[in-house]
C-alpha cells in the first residue's frame, strides 16, 4: 500500500491538488516526469489505469519503489528515454533542471491526442517579481506552522534560470493555448491540452 505521507508538507506537495484538478477524473495512462520520491505518481494511480514515474536519480527511484510498490518507476533521463504516449503527463519542480524549450516540447510530444500536460515549475525571481513574491512569505510561515515540512530526501537542487515572464513567453510560443498561472509559494503552472486528432 502506498504511503502518501499526508502529514508532511512542502511547496511542491502543496500544489499537488492543483495538478490533479487540471486532469481528467479517469484516464488510461499517466507519466510523471522527474517523479522524485513518487508521491504525485502514487496519487495519479488513483485515477489512471497505469502510471509511470521517471527520474534521473537512482536513489530517488529506489525510494519511490519502496514507498509506492503499485506504481512503475523507471530510472532514466527523460530527454533520451524512449517514452510512449500518455493521456496525462505531469512534471513538478523538474523543468528548471532541463533545457526548457526541449523539455516542454518533449513532454507535449508524449501526449496522446486530447491528452493533458501539467507542469509545475519554479521561476527565478526578478526585481519586477519581488513585490508579488513577498506576498507568499506570511502564507508560507502559516503553512509551516500548521503542517510538518517534509524533508527533501536528498533530491538534487538547482537554481532556476528563467523568470516568470520568460517562462510565460516561451511556453505560449511553444504550446499555443497553454494556460499559464503564477502562484504564491514561488511556483507557476502550465496546463495544456493536446488537440484531438493531432
From TrEMBL:
Signal peptide as annotated in the record: none
Xref: InterPro entries: Methyltransf_25 (IPR041698), SAM-dependent_MTases_sf (IPR029063)
Residue ranges that the Swiss-Prot or TrEMBL entry lists as coiled coil: none
Top-level lineage group: Bacteria
Pfam families, sorted: Methyltransf_25 (PF13649)
Domain Methyltransferase: 31-115
GO molecular function: methyltransferase activity
UniProt-listed GO biological process terms: methylation
Record's protein name: Methyltransferase domain-containing protein
UniProt keyword annotation of Transferase present: yes
Taxonomic lineage from the root: Bacteria, Bacillati, Actinomycetota, Actinomycetes, Streptosporangiales
Gene3D superfamilies according to UniProt: Vaccinia Virus protein VP39
Entry keyword annotation includes Disulfide bond: no
Amino acid at each position: 500500500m502506498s504511503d502518501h505521507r499526508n502529514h508532511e508538507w512542502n511547496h511542491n506537495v502543496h500544489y499537488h491538488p492543483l495538478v490533479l484538478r487540471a486532469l481528467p477524473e479517469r484516464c488510461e495512462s499517466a507519466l510523471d516526469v522527474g517523479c522524485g520520491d513518487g508521491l504525485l505518481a502514487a496519487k495519479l494511480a488513483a485515477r489512471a489505469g497505469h502510471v509511470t514515474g521517471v527520474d534521473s536519480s537512482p536513489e530517488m527511484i529506489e525510494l519511490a519503489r519502496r514507498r509506492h510498490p503499485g506504481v512503475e518507476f523507471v530510472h532514466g533521463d527523460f530527454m533520451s528515454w524512449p517514452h510512449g504516449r500518455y493521456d496525462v503527463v505531469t512534471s513538478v519542480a523538474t523543468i528548471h533542471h532541463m533545457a526548457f524549450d526541449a523539455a516542454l516540447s518533449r513532454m507535449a510530444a508524449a501526449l496522446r491526442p486530447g491528452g493533458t500536460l501539467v507542469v509545475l515549475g519554479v521561476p527565478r525571481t526578478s526585481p519586477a517579481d519581488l513585490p508579488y513574491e513577498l506576498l507568499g512569505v506570511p502564507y508560507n510561515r502559516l503553512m509551516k506552522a500548521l503542517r510538518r515540512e517534509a524533508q527533501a530526501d536528498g533530491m538534487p537542487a538547482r537554481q532556476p534560470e528563467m523568470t516568470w515572464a520568460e517562462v510565460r513567453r516561451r511556453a505560449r510560443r511553444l504550446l499555443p493555448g497553454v494556460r499559464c498561472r503564477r502562484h504564491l509559494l514561488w511556483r507557476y503552472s502550465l496546463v495544456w491540452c493536446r488537440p484531438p486528432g493531432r
